[in-house]
Amino acid sequence: MHHDHTSAKRPEPDLLLQRIADYALATERITSAEAFDTARYCLMDTLGCGLLALSYPACVKLLGPVVPGATMPRRGARVPGTSHELDPVQAAFNIGTIVRWLDFNDTWLAAEWGHPSDNLGAILAVADYLDRSGQKKLSMRDVLLAMIQAHEIQGVLALENGFNRVGLDHVLLVRIASTAVATRLLGGTREQIINALSLAFVDGGALRTYRHAPNTGSRKSWAAGDATSRAVWHALAAMKGEMGYPSVLTAKTWGFQDVLFRGKEIKLPAQGFGTYVMENVLFKISFPAEFHAQTAVEAALALYPQVAKRLDDIARIVIETQESGVRIIDKTGPLNNPADRDHCLQYMVAVPLLKGALTADDYEDGVAADPRIDALRAKMEVKENANFTRDYLDPQKRSIGNAIQVFFRDGSSTERVAVEYPVGHRRRRQEGIPLLVEKFEKNLRAKISAQNSDAILKLCLSQQQLEKISVQEFMTLFAI
Q: Is the pLDDT confidence value at 5 over 70?
């Protein structure tokens, strides 16, 4: 009897789904003190970014229940810095959106870029909901562990798989990582985690349209919130027994790889899943700027004293960057909104050369209207430096180098200032962590009462105390 090659027999789940599920369940393997320590700083930084975003009306208008009144008083998950108590799906959207809004949370750079702390939306929402509703006692150590895992799943998959190169957005990986850890937090079995992951992959990928000119727009600030809430939805569905789709990645014609990945295989890096990503994560400490530009901003600030008084004498400004910097943020022509400006290398160099600073407010229309910014941009040339590209791709280094030199009309010039590692890099932790704590304290005190701010800081500065406190007690300190 002739059998069609498209057999209806259900295959074994795709290996990637199995590997992710096994890692999510193997919590006892996560013992690295450095990873837990870094996760604590990551939690502080991420929550601080979320609190800072609450001073931007465009962000606040997206928050709250999906329709007025759809709240869960006394049992729902809280949204830090607000009075909202929501179901975990909507809470994940809210938390994911505030932490990502200003592009100031941590970053991971590989074949795919991304912001692993975006996953905190799902993790905190699910953990607070479970702890508060009495379904499961959870401590902040459980949250840190889930963060380490989500960082790892998102970051390791990004090492060799460039979803951006096929036009997909990195929030796809937020959805995958959040789905795995949310299902595990909810008590999912191996099969339920695999089912949930397959559901998350069936969603496909988000187009990157909203990250690139001429369509750059505010969706890039809530896309990760959307992804992390979708993850919680899939996790809850799998917990109710919703079935999965075992060959979602590899199915011929209809699978993720054929439909969205140009027939290429999603590669699983040889190193497997451990604690590498959390340990090596990049913090945006000094300025909210697309990460490939962080060292350029630092170089511009170093040049500011020599340049600020001679703006009219400038003939040209040479910026050397890595290949990724050229590909993502080398941008000429009009910049229409903050989302455009914080992804323009020339804009992010011009502002500190003019003002000696770069803050989130500098991307708003008022500042951008200063004609001197575009005058400076017109004098810039951006070029790739092959050494920067090489060291950027070197797993031992993962530097993100930029160099700037300013040439004046009289033939003189500044020195060439090169910065290879940003202050948020693992190689600059000793210098970076005190600045990170300072950034957190400033964001915290701007939004949370003095008494609660003191309590939160005291907790967060002690690994032992933070790990011990229950999730609901911790989240109560952030409620307004």
A: no
70, 84 Cβ separation under 8 angstroms: no
DSSP lists the bridge partners of residue 148 as none
Query: Above 70 in pLDDT, residue 6?
Result: no
Residue 248 Cα distances to 107, 195, 205, 234, angstroms: 28, 10, 13, 15
pLDDT confidence of 469, banded at 50, 70, 90?
very high
**CB 366: neighbour CB atoms within 10 A?**
8
As a whole number of Å, the CA-based R_g of the chain is: 23
Q: How many residues does the chain have?
A: 480
The pLDDT of residue 109: 85
Q: Residue-wise over 23-57: b if at least 16 C-beta within 10 A, else e?
A: bbbeeeebebeebbbbbbbbbbbbbbbbbbbbebe
- Phi, psi at 227, each rounded to 5°: -65, -40
Helices (H), 140-261: 140-160, 171-185, 190-202, 219-239, 256-260
The CA distance from 189 to 200, in Å, is 16
Q: What is the pLDDT of residues 154-172, one digit of tens each?
A: 999 999 999 999 999 999 9
- Distance of CA 192 to CAs 38, 39, 154, 255, 272, Å? 30, 26, 19, 20, 21
